[in-house]
Amino acid sequence: MAAVRRIREVARAALPRAVGERLPAAPPQEVGELLSDERFLAAVKEQAASQDRSESEVLEEVEGYLHEMSAAHDDRASQGWARMGEWFLRAYDVLVDEDQVQQLRKVDRTHSLALAFSHRSYLDGMVIPNVLMARRFSPTYTFGGANLNLPLIGSVASRTGVIFIRRATQEIPVYRLALRSYIRQMVTNKRNLAWSIEGGRTRTGKLRPPVHGILKYLTDTVDGADAPDVQVVPVSVVYDQLHEVTLMTEEARGASKTPEDWRWLVKFARLQRNRLGRAYLTVGEPFSLKERMGELAADGVTGHAAVERVALDISHRLNRATPVTVTAIVSLALLGADRALTVDEVLDTVEPLATYIEARRWPVAGAADLRDRSTIRRALTELTRSEVLTAYDQGTEPVWTIADDKHLVAAFYRNTVIHILVERAIGELSLLTVSELGPDAELPEGGELQVGWDEAKRMRDLLKFEFFFPARAGFEDDLRTELELLVGEDVTRLTPVRARELLVTARPHLAHLVLRPFLDAYLVVADRLADRGDAAVDEDDLLADALAVGRQWALQRRVASFESISLELFRTALALARHRGLLEGADGVGTAREAFAAELRDSVRRVNIIGEIAADVAPSIVPQPRRQETV
């Protein structure tokens, strides 16, 4: 009850007329403008005709939806809401790239901004508006799920720019008309809009596939010579740690999602009492949506295909803007080892990663020095305090390992950085494939090098539902960059012996650290799918079977880690199987399912070989007599 009282106290202090008293009604400007807009009324008439309903009936329905989703910015309410947001963010220091934000402020003076943000926490919806409000941006209107429209708080939030929208609208065409029209009017009025391109919080730490709904309405808005434009701005928010990750990983193991209600809000607020480090807000490269759609149209890409291309572009820019955190790198090191490590062993794993990150010019959160012993030690201590790691200090020196049942939590933090390592990992598998060619191997016209390219493209196709890859030309350019980092020059010829030499001398080795958890999960699903022969598949039954067998395999160490036993990963494997036509029952599909499982077994085999090579070339750390340390 103390948390309930605290929420009420903070709310009353922040919003003296919003909690316990009635706020003066803010006039819904866009709603009034739409109801007198000829274009909108014509759309209502067309909708009524398509449904064989009266125009007045449809107009009444759409007006109700407009009032339901409409938001305003009441100055007093917004200031109070910002103070309450600061209270919810009390677990963090929010670090902002001020140069990026100041450049964005110049764009804000002349354009409507569409802020597409990554979504790892419920706190994102407080971080972004608070940061922009503190720097005197135009007011931001943030889209949120109607499930968060809680009694009392929801009515206040709508007066601070929060637009609550429904998720399942396929069967409500009038609602979709209302939302499309409302977004168009907001852009016409040069409002700044913010929404999650993922549609919901990630359960794995990495970006989810983009959801096209709001983006589709924005592209409709900018269509036409006289239509308004909007600047799309990717905004990345990443955290050292998150209190809510444990609940999300429990859902990944099959637990039911906790409903968002007052009890949930109180629990969420209570969790924020404990400090967890920093939250980092970074801004990607903005672009004109109207110009981008025009470029795509000139290339013959229109309609849904154009929206998909823009969504993927936003996702790429979000990944590029997301900085590397120390927490992510430490989690990567410990998950890859899957045993206890000393500080020196963690540093030994991190050092080549730090060199690689510098070579690729990826940003590091807070400009942290990934080679600094005290920085790594502090991250280990903080992860131990939050019970993600366990520490043992009764020997000659402290060692740290992933705590029981916390592999998915550590994987969540590692996955915030995994996008920068995937292409390098695929490059390693390509080299391994070439190195395994026998003297009598039948080669394609492009020789051994073409074999490597073909393997890279196969892995890209295998993982395309898991990661965001550039178009094929860009993907090949990135792989050439990776090979140049390994060799020091452009590679025009490759032999099996040379490929093996490059693999052995490469540092870091990443395939086993980055790809094995995903391929292991895919293999579990493929094995269970193959077990069904030619029969049709019930997806829920298959997922339950994969969870059960996956746990068995993890106990038997047939998969490398419990982190692979995740519904999120299994569902992605299902999406791949569906794409390959393997879920419908048919004569002969059992053979295709067996081939799918065999392909994954071979991919896992190769990843494990990379792990063995990494273990062979890693320097041994011989324990030296020393004074006993404490954690």
From TrEMBL:
Alphabetical list of CDD domains matching this protein: LPLAT_DHAPAT-like (cd07993)
GO molecular function, one term: O-acyltransferase activity
Membrane topology listed for this record: Peripheral membrane protein
Coiled coil regions, renumbered to chain: none
BP GO terms, sorted: lipid metabolic process
Domain Phospholipid/glycerol acyltransferase stretches: 113-240
UniProt keyword Acyltransferase, yes or no: yes
The organism's place on the tree of life at top rank: Bacteria
Primary subcellular site in the record, as a coarse category: membrane
GO cellular component: endomembrane system; plasma membrane
Keywords: Acyltransferase, Membrane, Transferase
Subcellular location(s) of the protein: Endomembrane system
NCBIfam families assigned to the protein according to its UniProt record, in alphabetical order: PRK11915.1 (NF008883)
Assigned protein family: Belongs to the GPAT/DAPAT family.
Protein name from the UniProt record: Lysophospholipid acyltransferase
Protein source organism: Nocardioides oleivorans
